[in-house]
Amino acid sequence: MASEKTFYLETFGCQMNAHDSEKVIGTLLQQGYRQVESEEDAGLILYNTCSVRDKAEQRVYNRLNDHKYAHRAGKRFGVLGCVAQQEGERIFERAPFVSLVSGSASYRKLPEMLARLEAGEKHITGLDDQQTDQTFETEFAARLSPYRGYITIIEGCDKFCSYCVVPYTRGKERSRSSSSVLDEARRIAELGFTEIQLLGQNVNSYRDPEGKCSFAELLTAVGELPGIRRVRFTTSHPRDFTRDIVEAIDRVPTLCDHVHLPVQSGSARVLEAMAREYTPEWYLEQIGWIKAARRHISLTTDIIVGFPGEGETDFYQTLDLLDKVQFDGVFAFKYSARPNTPALTMADSVPEEEKSRRLQVLLERQREIQRANYSKQIGEVLEVMVEGTNPARGQIAGRSSQNKPVNFTWPQPIAPAPGTYISVKITKAYPNSLVGEAV
Ligand code: 5AD
Ligand code: SF4
User: Fold this and answer.
1) Tens of pLDDT along 52-79?
2) Is the CB of 52 under 6 A from ligand 2?
3) Ligand 2 within 6 A of CB of 19
4) I need a labelling partner for 281 at 20 to 30 A (CA). Which of 26, 195, 216, 407 fits?
5) In order of start, what are the domains of the chain with their CATH numbers?
6) How far is the CA of 6 from the centre of ligand 1 (A)?
7) Nearest CA to ligand 2 atom 7
8) Do 147 and 196 contact (CB within 8 A), yes or no?
9) How far, in Å, CA of 37 to CA of 35, rounded?
């Protein structure tokens, strides 16, 4: 390897992965590496991967394939994250030039693995085969945004939904102590971050190992730290969604008025086959609490269409649920059979074209719901956190507390800096964004 140690890191998948990458980058910088912007300039090329759907997994192999001769120039490759944990040493068979394969539960050992890599070892693995109960915390986490800080409060998952790889790729559920979460939150608040996002596969399943506070109490404590203006949390699981979370949002103004609560399906039969352990009625009851709040809390969800055995009636029940809840956003996916999961043994009975058709129908229905929801906000004045500019339209781009994209005009020649908060009067609405003017 060249005397200067350089690396390139690309991230696929969810916010947990994005934040893991921040920790990995921090660790590499600490080890004397310098981050570069392209594969061409890097001595070490890392992909932090996602295996939640087959498509995400294939993207990584395509990526590796694009660079399959680069190792001849002395470049090293590492596969991190969920595909690494899931595929393990099979990655070396498919892509022999890869030198490092590590799942997220082994990132604590990165400094040691990097040293072995530098010593010329060809195939190094960091795979969690003993179901670690440790979390990966590092005070060196690089912060990719200067105003939004991510904090992992719980890792892994014990829910074992029948379609999902996460329990196999990220191991068993383990929470961080509330004092270590609050220490980190306080530290980044002192550095000038004003928004904190608490992360976890099931963030609201949080259980303080010190027994000091519940999830809602932790939210409140973070929201009351000096300097913090926004607190978000993702992703919540309906099984563990408790009423005190809604009460906390109502009481603490810094807690954002947005809940992402994946429902997956509106059919009791499909939910049972998915092992979600709730019924549509149970879910709607929780939605009822959220809608009864004093603040207008925005709701978003995830849906899977074409799960094994999903019939027309089941699908209509999902559409019906969308009508009842009136979400502000839906992430919808076609079911994708995944290795190791219980659903793999069920016949993947819905043909691909039918999955695509259902997805299309669902997204169209949802678009109309959002068109109506978003247009109700015309005339409101919202606090928007600036994220950047949209030079094509001459507008400033940001997000409301409800996490809706807001583009707005700004009367002065110099644009407000990212991270500043501006009051914006909404003048126009699209199904996925709002438009307004600074007031
Ligand atoms: N197929 C399709 N979508 C899936 N998701 C998780 N596993 C699968 C799968 N096997 C979706 C769920 C989850 C989101 C992150 O990804 O909707 O909430
Ligand atoms: Fe993808 Fe799930 Fe892993 Fe996140 S935890 S990267 S969504 S497989």
Assistant:
1) 999 999 999 999 999 888 888 889 999 9
2) yes
3) no
4) 216
5) 6-126 (3.40.50.12160), 148-370 (3.80.30.20), 381-438 (2.40.50.140)
6) 34
7) 14
8) no
9) 7
